[in-house]
Here is the input.
Amino acid sequence: MLREQAGLQPDVDYTINFSLGQKRSVHGIANGEFAVAALSDDKVQSMLNRGSVKASDYRVIYQSEVIPQLTIGYVYNLEPTVAERVTAAVFDFQNEGGSGDEVSGEPTRFYPIDYKKDFEFVRTVDDSFDPRFFKAAAAKTKSEEKQRGRASRE
Here is the structure.
């Protein structure tokens, strides 16, 4: 997406490492360990709300479309009356007394989505992904972690 939308090339305009978690990425940005990181807004917002990171610790340079977090679906050939009952049960569920949204604290609710429209961005990313890249980047990250481990023991 960075190449397509911003004209940036990996290993030319930026390097890729895997931090092995969004929380680690947020702290890595805040502590100056990483120049950039791909993060979900809800994770950043929850960390801001808890005070484990400050808004002044980072800046947003690219924001993708929103990707639905949780989905519930059913198989395409489910009997229509059963499909209607499942749909009604999911959307009518109030979640009173249940755990709240990590950012807003409001009870978690389900809202209707349209797979074709709401997951178009995800499919675009998937279609542009080259699996060879992941293997090379993961190997590079593992090698760098070993180097950091040796340096910290010395």
Notes: DSSP finds seven helices and no strands in the chain. The chain has two domains: 2-68+114-153, 72-112.
